[in-house]
Each structure stands twice: as structure tokens, then as C-alpha cells.
TrEMBL record:
Residues 22-118 form the CoA-binding domain. Coiled coil: none annotated. SUPFAM superfamilies: NAD(P)-binding Rossmann-fold domains (SSF51735). Pfam families: CoA_binding_2 (PF13380). This is CoA-binding domain-containing protein.
Amino acid sequence: MTTTQETTPTWTNPPAIRRQQILRDTRTVAVVGASANAARASNFVATYLLASTGFDVYFVNPNATEILGRPVYASLDALPVVPDLVDVFRKPADLSGVLDEVLALDPHPSTFWLQFGLFDEGLARRAEKAGLEVVMDRCLKVEHARFHGGLHLAGFDTGVISSRRRDG
């Protein structure tokens, strides 16, 4: 008889107040796995970052040359700057290689950010051991909007303070 043992994650994201501080301290963002396809999440997030933040945004994708009118770089080491934050839109099997690229930069970026659906405790611990702040399974766009008035901590910012329904 085979038994399975569920493991409970022991790694947790930084608390909301720390994630907010990370975004306040960030000036440059590299979007790894950026896509020119408007239907892809990375394109939607990139569009938001360019239109709604003061971040200098760089796109990394070896198969594209231009996204949203901006140049695209084949790798992190091809960027003209070392970004403060690396936002990753890649499949789980690629994450270790992306972290290797991040750790090869000198100096290292401050934050290694994995988008919704990407969570790897071992990877997070390796990044933290190298001195990086790690955020996983969180959307950079959602977090930025949450902390800058686009979303309330509990959801969309409707501007309604009361829990009562409006008449009419």
C-alpha cells in the first residue's frame, strides 16, 4: 500500500507591509517571460506597469525584439541596468535557471518575484540565502494597485466606506 504524505509549506511571503515597502523601494523592474501577446498575463501586467507606475520597466524574452514599443532583451545580463526587482512569468521548470541568471548579476537585484501560480520553497530559500527578498504566487500589478489605491486590501476600491448598499 502506498501512502501519500502532504507537506505543508513552511515558507511564507513577506507580510503586506513589507511587500509595500519593497514596491516603494523599487525603481527598476525586469519582466522575465514578457510577451507581445495582449492575451498573456505578462503583457497585461507590463501594460499596467508602464501606464500606472513610475518604474523603469525592461522586458526579457529571447524570442521577441519589441513589446509595447519597448526593446526586449534576450537575457537578464543583456539589460542596460541591474533591475531592483525581477518579475518572473515562466513555467516552474524554468525557475531555477532564471534564479541562476539573477544570482549571476553583479550586484544582485533586491527582489525575486514570482507571479501567480509560481511557488517553490527550495528556490525561495536559495534566493534568500543569496540575500534576495522573495515574493511568490503574487501578482506585481495587483500588489502595486492594492498599495497605491487601485485595490482595497480586501478587493477592489469602490470608494464606498459603508457596508450598507446604496439605494437606487
